[in-house]
Amino acid sequence: xxxxxxxxxxxxxxxxxxxxxxxxYFPQGHxxxxxxxxxxxxxxxxxxxxxxxxxxSLLADPxxxxxxxxxxxxxVAQDQFQFxxxxxxxxxxxxxxxxxxxxxxxxxxxxxDANNGGGFSVPRYCADSVFPPLDFQxxxxxxxxxxxxVHGVVWDFRHIYRGTPRRHLLTTGWSKxxxxxxxxxxxxxxxxxxxxxxxxIGVRRAPSSNKGGGGGSYYGDEYYAG
Amino acid sequence: xxxxxxxxxxxxxxxxxxxxxxxxYFPQGHxxxxxxxxxxxxxxxxxxxxxxxxxxSLLADPxxxxxxxxxxxxxVAQDQFQFxxxxxxxxxxxxxxxxxxxxxxxxxxxxxDANNGGGFSVPRYCADSVFPPLDFQxxxxxxxxxxxxVHGVVWDFRHIYRGTPRRHLLTTGWSKxxxxxxxxxxxxxxxxxxxxxxxxIGVRRAPSSNKGGGGGSYYGDEYYAG
DNA sequence: TTGTCGGCCGATCGCCGACAA
DNA sequence: TTGTCGGCGATCGGCCGACAA
Lengths: 226, 226
Hints:
Chains A, B: Homodimers and heterodimers. Chains A, B: It is found in: Nucleus. Chains A, B: Belongs to the ARF family. Chains A, B: Auxin response factors (ARFs) are transcriptional factors that bind specifically to the DNA sequence 5'-TGTCTC-3' found in the auxin-responsive promoter elements (AuxREs). Chains A, B: It comes from Brassica carinata (Ethiopian mustard). The structure is a homodimer of 226-residue chains. Chain A has 226 residues and is of the alpha+beta class. In chain A, 17% of the residues lie in helices and 32% in strands. In chain A, the strands form four sheets. Chain A has a four-stranded antiparallel sheet with strand order 5-8-7-6. Chain A has a three-stranded antiparallel sheet with strand order 1-2-3. Chain A has a three-stranded antiparallel sheet with strand order 4-9-10. The radius of gyration of chain A is 22 Å and the shape is elongated. The C terminus of chain A is likely disordered. At the A-B interface, strand 7 of A face strand 7 of B. Chain A binds a DNA duplex (21 and 21 nucleotides) through helix 4, strand 7 and strand 8.
């Protein structure tokens, strides 16, 4: 994935350490993250281990589209830790020179946005700063947008400026996207424009308060809460 | 899974060895089955290994509904192989006493059967011998069938006898089943009746000549052959 | 007996402006 | 400016008998 697109999808609050930078690996934290139920951790490995970030991969979940980073940590001796790797972590990974700025806009989906059969209300700022400009000579102003997701799949949306009062909307193509990505109210979409004609779309899932998996049973194609 | 239902789904041509029977394990065949591309097999383990079937599990794929058996093989010494396990493999696994015969009918789906929006043409013999009898006093004769799949999920179908000339059809509920199981023309469905009111439905996939996975690319929700 | 087709009816999808927050 | 709603037109699913293999 393009590092700029990855960063835009992840959001500004997400930071990852620089390549070859010095970090501490906390086995206990890792274990609890992987398996929150079993709290029995061997105290022999409970102390933090000095490491160096030996590789970084920016990835996206093939199903949920959520972006994540895969870091390889190489353990180093404690006494060498402070002096062996004097790489200045000046530039964080994924923060490239802004010779080609990526314009970004994220919106939390409303009920109307996520509703099946509905469209997507495009905030004014998003339409003005991220989307290509419409031709306001024709009425109503309409264009097709071809937008690429994190997997390189291209989606096309009908972008129209209509209604009283006028507002920007995504209509045709939107519900197909919502269904395919299984987006629900509270999730976010991220629109990005890299160059004049390169647009990308990303997804951020809402913090799962209690997603599925609970009791209940399937009866044919219908789901019955138990 | 009920062994009788498992056998009916698998079909008469499928046979599995008896529990505790003596078999030979062929590592090379196993390896080639798992990974057909790499043909480099260590000759040290290329000879068949005498084993005893120590356990048998009748299972069904949670996605495709295809039934399969899981056999555990326990290796035994060559000299003990012939005498150590004199269990007579008189009754094959899954071939129980027919104190309660399972009536079965399988049909290969036609284009019309698998077509979206269409129904299912029920062969006369299936309706007569497997389905519960219709009440021919009313016109048209109709009933709802509640049929359980290999996972215990119950599906209901509308069974009607109509048209000129008259024929048995499954209408409402059928296309939902086809879509959920992703059945296509050439696949088979198996109808089973264990007791008077217990009906089951199974699936046999068509021998995959060249199923998906090949070249091509996704463009939005559409698939374009490459 | 049963596979395929066109007709047709009803349900759903999804685009629309009207409001109001 | 933009979230939600009811209206309504187009599309599609899916039930039907007609016909022929």
